[in-house]
Amino acid sequence: ANLAAIRISESNAERRQREAEYLKLATSSEKIQAAQALEESYLAEKLAEEARAVKEMATAQATEIVGARFL
């Protein structure tokens, strides 16, 4: 009976250890995915800001050209 109880206890300990390892991997994976999503968000925001800057420069240049034609 003691041998069976020891084996059950060892089996439970091994199972809990595997579960802890799986949880650690899942948590790491979630954190990596969140970091990647944040990085993509920052990149998209940066690209949008650059596009706005290019549009503003083009508008300013067009305004100068149109203004020069009426001088």
Describe the structure.
The structure is a single chain. This protein is mainly α and 71 residues long. Helix content is 96%, strand content 0%. It has one helix and no strands. It has one helix spanning 2-69.
Sequence-ordered SSE layout with sheet pairings:
Blueprint: H1 2-69
The major pleated sheet works out as: none
State the helix count: 1
Q: Which residue ranges are poorly predicted, with pLDDT under 50 across at least 5 consecutive positions?
A: none
Helix percent band = over 70%
Structural class category: mainly alpha
Structure described in brief:
The protein is an all-alpha fold and 71 residues long. Helices cover 96% and strands 0% of the residues. The protein has one helix at residues 2-69.
Which short descriptors sum up this protein?
71 residues; mainly alpha
